[in-house]
Amino acid sequence: MSRQADALVIGAGPGGYVAAIRLAQLGKKTILIDRDRLGGECLNYGCIPSKALIHAANLYENISKSNSIGISVTDAKVNVEKLQEWKSAVVSKLRNGIATLCKGNNIEVIFGEASFETANSVSVRTSDGVETVQSDKIIIATGSKPIELPSLKFDGKRIISSKEALELSSIPEELSIIGGGAIGLEIGILYAKFGSKLTVIELTDQLLPGTDADLVQIVSRTLRRLGAKILLKSKVVEYEDAGKGIKIRVETPNGPESHEADLVLVSVGRRPRIDGLAIEKAGVEVTEKGFIKVDKQLRTSTPSIFAIGDVVGPPFLAHKASREGIVAAEVIAGQNSELDYRALPSAIFTSPEIATVGLSEAQLQKEGRAITIGKFPLAALGRALTNDDTEGFVKVIADAETDEVLGVEVVGGGASDLISEAALAIEMGATSEDFALTIHPHPTLPEGIMEAAEAVKGRAIHILKR
Ligand code: FAD
Predict the structure, then answer these.
(1) How far is CA 108 from CA 11, 17, 55, 149, in A?
(2) In ligand 1, which atom is closest to the CA atom of 311?
(3) Shared domain check, 188 and 211
(4) 84 pLDDT exceeds 80?
(5) Model confidence pLDDT, tens digit, residues 145-160
(6) Are residues 240 and 136 in the same domain?
(7) How many CA atoms lie within 13 A of 120 on its CB side?
(8) φ, ψ for residue 47 (rounded to 5)?
(9) Is any atom of ligand 1 closer than 6 Å to the C-beta of 9?
(10) Nearest of 432, 385, 460 to residue 69 by alpha carbon
């Protein structure tokens, strides 16, 4: 069987399905292919299931400590089966929503494994056999998959990736996490809140590599409070079976150490998912690390083929994939769109959350830029106190000469929601004065951004000038 389309999208994650919808909105006959489920890694195995479990863990923690604000709850218990059912129901609801949107936009969806035949033709292996799709334009949105350590290969049971870690049927007693990046810490903290004894082993000299150290310090404090053991500059060298669990040997700056755990989550980064896609048949070039090379309009080395999302490289963020999908779709429809990553926000759902946009303080200092910084502690913010959640701060970084906002960093409760205001400011080229001039409702967390912006000029109302 052979089908014809104006545009074909391979991969129905937040990059691919969003691109398909925009293509259809722009009048293109669009086919969307996925070998698994609508929504991709993010909806089915990543962003959404992890945030559902994190929400539940935070609720459990808040219930457990609510005595301090006058609410006593005894005997709070976690029913993991019910929790997993609820999480899966959230995921299904959203997946059904995508199916409805595809149908409503007349997007043809094919479930099957796609593989290039030529630059304009793809074969799809479905449960009913192989069919061919011919298309003028093709978008590759096949995402990424976890990197496997040669010394610690995934077995799906005791040595697991984030996918299995979000589908556990019981709370592990001892959980070791290899890799102290965002995914590892989000999952580690959630299980630590449910009672797991946590060990985090990180190769570099700080958790959340690439994030400013003053933000990371606040999350490290939570980890210590939860009783987690953190091994920095450390590396797993080998492992052996230890009854129902695993014993790992770790090289640390203080010499070799052994750790036993019932589960080891390996979360050391992600690599492009292009195996079986035969992109070489379409002349699509990749970088040294195997990510697909694209220009600012997401066009690959073959002009009729575009690539978006994780498969073109980090940062691995769903909203980056979606924006790239929109740009690629608009370019295919003849518009002159292109991507500007300056205002790309990033959120890490640890405890507390970290969210950033623009350039970091460390980056700017490395570049030798003249900057002014305003910092405001959440402990001085009424809303944070009423939320009983005062750890963290807001940092606004502005150009010393022009006052243009170059970066905003937030660590604290609600950081992932707070950062959008800052992203809008950077997108519009706003100054710190613009933040300060904007009246913020009281009592709210965004007042923290306004105060940090005032602090850039040394005139925040609710802290004393140092
Ligand atoms: P994907 O979502 O990976 O989708 C690719 C799709 O392509 C898949 O459905 C796959 O089945 C399909 N596919 C692959 N090869 C083929 C083929 N040959 N034929 C047909 N179909 C194919 N990002 C955030 O922004 N916020 C978060 O909170 C967040 N949390 C995360 C938590 C975890 C545990 C993980 C693992 C990731 C998280 N991410 C988060 C990252 C986010 O999931 C990815 O950045 C995002 O999914 C990338 O989207 P994509 O469309 O590029 O690819």
Answers:
(1) 13, 11, 35, 38
(2) 52
(3) yes
(4) yes
(5) 999 999 899 999 999 9
(6) no
(7) 9
(8) -50, -55
(9) no
(10) 385
